[in-house]
Amino acid sequence: MWKWLLKTVMNYIVGKDVFGNIQVLVEHVAKDEKMSGAEKKEHVLTKTKEIGSDFASHMLNFAVEAAVTFLKEKNK
Q1: How many Å apart are CA 19 and CA 35, to the nearest integer?
Q2: In sequence order, what are the residues at sequence separation of 6 or more whose Cβ sits closer than 8 angstroms to the Cβ of residue 54?
Q3: Mind giving me the DSSP string for 14-29?
Q4: Are 38 and 44 in contact (CB under 8 A)?
Q5: What is the end-to-end Cα distance of the chain in Å, rounded?
Q6: Whose CA is closest to 10, among 62, 53, 45?
Q7: Mean pLDDT on 14-31
Q8: Is 54:47 a contact under the CB 8 Å cutoff?
Q9: Burial, 46: exposed, middle or buried (Cβ in 10 Å; 0-12, 13-18, 19+)?
Q10: Mean pLDDT for the chain?
């Protein structure tokens, strides 16, 4: 149950596409037995920075939607 909740929250906050890409990346790196744990983490962080603009865009859209929600509540 908690895994479903975590995935739902991450999809909502980070964005389904971004979180899905990160999951695929982590799974791919986890299979590489030549890399240490620290190297795997650094690789994932480097690659996620490349998709960071998608995350930033998603968070801006999220902020706008939240602001609209608050405005609608204020004007009721």
Answers
A1: 23
A2: 15, 17, 18
A3: T-HHHHHHHHHHHHHH
A4: no
A5: 36
A6: 62
A7: 88
A8: no
A9: exposed
A10: 85
* Residue 42, token pair as written in the block: 């650094």
The residues, any chain, with a CB within 8 Å of residue 66's CB and separated by 6 or more, are none
Q: What is the dihedral of CA 32, 36, 38, 44, to 10 degrees?
A: -10
Query: How far apart are alpha carbons 54 and 58 in whole angstroms?
Result: 6
Report the C-alpha gap between 39 and 36 in whole angstroms.
Answer: 5
pLDDT tens across 23-53, in order? 999 999 999 999 999 999 989 888 888 777 7
